[in-house]
C-alpha cells in the first residue's frame, strides 16, 4: 500500500503484485463505494497468477472519509496526478475501474498513455433516463476497450450499448454484480466470468 499526493488530496494505491508481471491493471472504484467491491476484489485475487499486477486505487475523497464523490474533473485530476506511480514498474498499464472509475479511465486513458481500458459496470446513463447517455465517453476512446456489464444493470443493460462495443455480460448481475436468489449461477461463478474474460482479453484472446 502506498499513499500518493495529488492536487486534490492524498490518494492510496493497494498493490497486488504478480511474481513475473507483464502488465499493470489499475482499477478505480465507483462513486458509491471503495476498493472492497466484489469485482475489484476478484480481479485483485485472480490476475497476479496471469502475470498481471493489480493496483487498486482509492480516490482522495474516499481516503479522506468523505461520503460523496466530487465532480468528474476533480476525479480526473487525482487519477492523472497519481498515474506516474502506476507506470513506475516500467510495464504497460491498462486503465480501468468500476462505474465512475470506469468513466475516469475512459476520459483520461489516451492522454496518459494507457495501453487499453477496462470498464466495469459502465454507467451508460442514470437509471430510468436512457436519453442522458454517456456513450460518447466510451466511443471517444481510441484504444482497445472492454466493457463488463451486469445483465440487469439499471445504469445500462448490455443490449443498450453502442454497436461494436466489446462487451462481456455477467448474467443476472446488477450494477454491483450482485445476483438475485433466483440466479442460475453463484457469485463465485459470476466473478469467474469477469476474471476469465479479463484474463483472456489481456492475454490476447477473445473475451467472453
TrEMBL record:
Domain KANL3/Tex30 alpha/beta hydrolase-like: 23-202
Listed InterPro entries: AB_hydrolase_fold, KANL3/Tex30_Abhydrolase, NSL3/Tex30
Keyword entries, A-Z: Hydrolase
A family per Pfam: Abhydrolase_11
Coiled coil: none
Matches recorded under PANTHER family: TESTIS DEVELOPMENT PROTEIN PRTD, TESTIS-EXPRESSED PROTEIN 30
GO molecular function: hydrolase activity
Protein name: Hydrolase
Amino acid at each position: 500500500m502506498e499513499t500518493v499526493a495529488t492536487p486534490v488530496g492524498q490518494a492510496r494505491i493497494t498493490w497486488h503484485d504478480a511474481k513475473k508481471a507483464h502488465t499493470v491493471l489499475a482499477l478505480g472504484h465507483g462513486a458509491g463505494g471503495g476498493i472492497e467491491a466484489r469485482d475489484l476484489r476478484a480481479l485483485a485475487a485472480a490476475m497476479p497468477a496471469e502475470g498481471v499486477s493489480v493496483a487498486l486505487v482509492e480516490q482522495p475523497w474516499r481516503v479522506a472519509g468523505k461520503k460523496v464523490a466530487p465532480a468528474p474533473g476533480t476525479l480526473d485530476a487525482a487519477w492523472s496526478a497519481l498515474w506516474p506511480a502506476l507506470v513506475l514498474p516500467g510495464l504497460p498499464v491498462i486503465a480501468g475501474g468500476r462505474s465512475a472509475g470506469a468513466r475516469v479511465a475512459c476520459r483520461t486513458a489516451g492522454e496518459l498513455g494507457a495501453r487499453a481500458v477496462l470498464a466495469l459496470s459502465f454507467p451508460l446513463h442514470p437509471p430510468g433516463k436512457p436519453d442522458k447517455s454517456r456513450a460518447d465517453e466510451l466511443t471517444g476512446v481510441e484504444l482497445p476497450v472492454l466493457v463488463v456489464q451486469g445483465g440487469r444493470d439499471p445504469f445500462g443493460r448490455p443490449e443498450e450499448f453502442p454497436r461494436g462495443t466489446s462487451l462481456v455480460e455477467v448474467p443476472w448481475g446488477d450494477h454491483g454484480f450482485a445476483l438475485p436468489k433466483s440466479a442460475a449461477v453463484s457469485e463465485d461463478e459470476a466473478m469467474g466470468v469477469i476474471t476469465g474474460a479479463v484474463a483472456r482479453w489481456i492475454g490476447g484472446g477473445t473475451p467472453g
